[in-house]
Specification:
single chain, 66% helix, globular
């Protein structure tokens, strides 16, 4: 790992963010600066700085005299993330040309074929990301994708929980296929409601996950308490 302060801090931040969003660090789990520094082979300073950035993102919460924890899933933040993503992706469809780029259409078609046979949730999540980025590319707005990714960290945690809730990601693959088919056959007007419904399906998944595992979600109040180990109230 590079040792330059700024690049090290950013590298640590990117890795910790990836672990949080991918649920490798689950909602509510403790985060130790010492353990992370040892794991990544860096000093505590870039870890501490990266943690501050994660706190600003709302992905880590620090409780004095208790410790630092991955935030539990906050439905308000998920809804805000969803709002941003939906606004960008739905608006972009209007700019898909009547004769879409055949190369991009081909890439999306191959992506869908891979989705239909995929059984690994991590792999499917990446294919899902590539598909939505591809739709933006088809509309000439791929440059907005980094902003979308930055805005949807809270949503992505909920999406991953939703993937774990479903027995198979096949239902999402078919929703993707329906969006692309409608777009190519009938234009944006037909694709927009399908994409909107697909993007909002995460909320139904969240409710099922919350019924089964409420400890993963943020209540109106709550904080961990230091006992022999830190536990959430």
């Amino acid at each position: 790992m590079p040792r330059t302060s700024g690049s090290t801090r950013r590298t640590v931040y990117d890795e910790l963010r990836r672990r949080v969003v991918s649920l490798a660090l689950p909602p509510g789990s403790p985060v130790s600066e010492n353990e992370i520094a040892a794991d990544l082979g860096v000093s505590r300073t870039p870890v501490r700085e990266a943690m501050i950035m994660l706190v600003q993102d709302g992905l880590v919460q620090v409780f004095p005299k208790v410790g630092s924890f991955v935030t539990r899933v906050d439905l308000r933040r998920v809804a805000d993330s969803q709002f941003v993503r939906e606004a960008v992706e739905l608006a972009s469809l209007a700019d898909v040309p009547a004769e879409p780029d055949r190369v991009v259409v081909g890439e999306l078609t191959v992506n869908l074929a891979r989705q239909r046979v995929c059984t690994d949730n991590d792999e499917f999540f990446q294919l899902d990301e590539e598909f939505h980025r591809g739709l933006l590319r088809l509309a000439g707005h791929e440059g907005t994708w980094p902003a979308v990714v930055a805005a949807k960290a809270h949503l992505d945690r909920a999406r991953r929980l939703g993937l774990e809730e479903n027995r198979s990601p096949e239902v999402f693959a078919e929703q993707h296929a329906a969006v692309l088919d409608a777009l190519l056959a009938s234009g944006p007007g037909a694709a927009v409601p399908l994409l909107r419904s697909h993007l909002r399906a995460v909320f139904d998944d969240i409710e099922r996950v919350r019924e089964r595992s409420p400890e993963l979600f943020a209540p109106s109040a709550g904080r961990p308490t230091r006992r022999s180990v830190a536990v959430w109230e």
